[in-house]
Design goal:
Elements: H1 2-11, E1 20-21, H2 29-36, E2 39-40, H3 43-49, E3 52-55, H4 59-69, E4 78-81, H5 88-94, E5 101-105, E6 115-121, H6 127-138, E7 141-145, H7 151-159, H8 161-178, H9 183-204, H10 208-215, H11 221-231, H12 234-252
Parallel strand pairs: 1-2, 3-4, 4-5, 6-7
Antiparallel strand pairs: 5-6
Helix pairs in contact: 7-12, 8-9
Length: 253
């Protein structure tokens, strides 16, 4: 997600000479420098001199990084964490309860400007700063501010959601191949279908239920397919999967 954030910052008009980064494997810095034209700096330098710090890392690595920077980061520096499950209070405590913290759950389509960023803030974040960060992330797609108590539940929809659709596409392509369609054609058909359905749902103003009913003729082809989904417990399976994602997010916090 780090590169998605960099791309979003640049797209939002932040001058490249005001964007710097660091990464655990410094031998890979040249890749980022060449791709985005920004500079690499040490973690200590970034902590001391940045007005805004994005923390884009695995949640398991977050506390160690916070411990490393806590003596260098000024109290007024705004911290924006993309670490799944990690609450603003945990981050504040690790930094000595001084910094304003914004928690963001993004998803990978941010890379192509069609992402979702769900945002929550600690009580000491200035509302103007929160709106500025929301506007910044909106360049990469939908950016929504919610109460932090809902973050783990929302993660199960938008944070993990792209993987659900990728898995469904995989299943459609596999089934298509078994029905005699080439992998190339089945993939193209599945992608175009799911993309068209999403745009139709967004632009029609109709609910998913209404659109499903409109395309399902009684005793027709689609009705037979949906009957199999229903008999095999699609709704229950999706709910169980989302609860599992929510619960894991809670564990990470």
């Amino acid at each position: 997600m780090g590169q998605a954030v960099i791309a979003t910052l640049i797209k939002a008009g932040i001058p490249k000479d005001q964007i710097s980064f660091t990464r655990k494997r410094s031998e890979l810095n040249d890749e980022i420098i060449k791709a985005y034209g920004i500079s690499a700096r040490s973690l200590a330098e970034l902590a001391r001199e940045s007005d805004l710090i994005f923390l884009a890392m695995k949640p398991q690595d977050l506390i160690a990084i916070l411990d490393e920077i806590k003596t260098n980061v000024p109290a007024e520096t705004l911290i924006v964490s993309l670490a799944a499950g990690k609450k603003t209070g945990v981050i504040q405590a690790a930094l000595g309860d001084k910094n304003p913290v914004i928690r963001v759950m993004p998803n990978t389509p941010m890379v192509v400007g069609e992402g979702v960023s769900v945002i929550s803030a600690s009580s000491n974040v200035d509302p103007a700063e929160l709106e500025w960060v929301r506007g910044l992330l909106a360049v990469g797609g939908l950016a929504m501010v919610i109460d932090e108590s809902l973050q783990d539940a929302v993660t199960s929809i938008s944070g993990s959601g792209p993987a659900y659709f990728f898995a469904f596409i995989e299943a459609m392509v596999s089934a298509g191949e078994k029905l005699g369609i080439s992998n190339h054609d089945a993939t193209a058909l599945a992608i175009a279908t799911i993309k068209g359905a999403a745009v139709m749902l967004e632009e029609s103003g109709k609910s998913a239920t209404t659109l499903r009913e409109n395309v399902t003729s009684p005793k027709g082809v689609t009705a037979e397919a949906l009957k199999v989904f229903r008999e095999r417990g699609l709704d229950e399976m999706v709910e169980a999967a989302m609860r599992a994602a929510r619960d894991r997010s809670l564990e990470l916090g």
